[in-house]
Amino acid sequence: MRICPILCWLLVLSLFPKTFGQSKKFRIHTVAFYNFENLFDTINDPNTFDEDWTPKGSQHWTYDKYQKKLDNLSRVLSEIGSSENPDAPTFIGGCEIENRGVLEDLILQPKLADKEYGIIHFDSPDKRGIDVALLYRKHYFQPTTYSNIPLYVFQGETKSKLEKGETTDDVLEISSKNKRVYTRDQLLVTGFLEGEEIHLIVNHWPSRSGGEQRSSPFREAAGALNRKIIDSLQQINPNAKIITMGDLNDGPYNKSIKIALGAKAKKAEVPQFGVYNPFEEMQKKGMGTIAHRDAWDIFDQIMVSESVLKSDYSSFQFWKAGIYNKSFLVQTSGQFKGYPLRHSVTEIGFSDHFPVYIYLIKEKK
């Protein structure tokens, strides 16, 4: 008989509020998100701007470098949240993914192969050729429906002047025909986690290319679309359990999250059908997932609907959140000492973002 750590893990009193008592046992699942930062294969796709990520491109991207990148990512993914859940994440949302093929290579890495991850991925209209995706443990989660929901934004919807000092690899691509800003779709996945229906939305909102203020309306539109998706799910089922995650290219305090999506920083402030963002309080404490000019911000966030904040743990509920920023993910020298250890032409690192995670818990009967 197979005994799985995720079902047998005992969360003792030190890990939970005192009211839980020492005798209670809980099932736990980790939900993670990670910006994979340019997870490209070495093959030139004529339909996307991926030329830099080929052996002849500016990154001098080779098969050996690609394999090292996969190994690095698999190490991170296998360990996220391991401080309190020894099993690998049940869900991994990811972005900056070139195609399904790189995900297939990733889940077959030695550190991940035995986890039996499934893949949900769609090609998005992003001209750079990067998409979002969801990896899930097939043993625990059975998807029933999934779809990619496009974000339509157009140049001219914002009139602010070009700002200086905003630099990013993620450049907005604009159609010369209709001025559409091509960006990533929002991925909606519905399925059953150990018999409980759950909805997950994976995001990578428009970049800050051209400046934060100039590009903010695009991310506000992304936040509004996210809210619309959540509303539609709650209209079908007022108790729908919803998790939305991603690299939002905005901090928890920005309009796209605070106003368009309506996320709250404190559980007590979340109304019925509202959204809770556990990463806002972390940001106020100076924590971060990405650094720029020695200033930290949290662009990578996981938020949950009010229905996942109940104190009755007879079904899966939110427990707590974290940023996975272990020392091996940190640059140890040079100009960017202390920053996330990204990869470059001379060094294959991990990502310019730290991954984030939340725990879902349920009392065992």
Kindly list the characteristics that best describe this protein:
single chain; 365 residues; seven-stranded mixed β-sheet; six-stranded mixed β-sheet
| Mean pLDDT value | 90
Q: Could you say which structural class the secondary elements and strand pairing correspond to?
A: alpha+beta
User: Regions with pLDDT < 50 over 5+ consecutive residues?
Assistant: 5-15, 17-21, 158-167
Return the string of H and E elements.
HEHEHEEEEEEEEHEHEEHEEEEE
Query: Helix fraction?
Result: 10-25%
- Report how far apart the termini are: 20 Å
Report the β-strand fraction as a percent range: 25-35%
Give the strand order of the largest sheet, numbering strands 1, 2, ... along the chain.
Answer: 5-9-10-11-16-13-12
Reported for the largest beta sheet, the result is: 7 strands, mixed
* SS element count, helices: 6
Q: State Rg.
A: 20 Å
* Total beta strand runs: 18
Shape: globular
What oligomeric arrangement do these chains adopt?
single chain
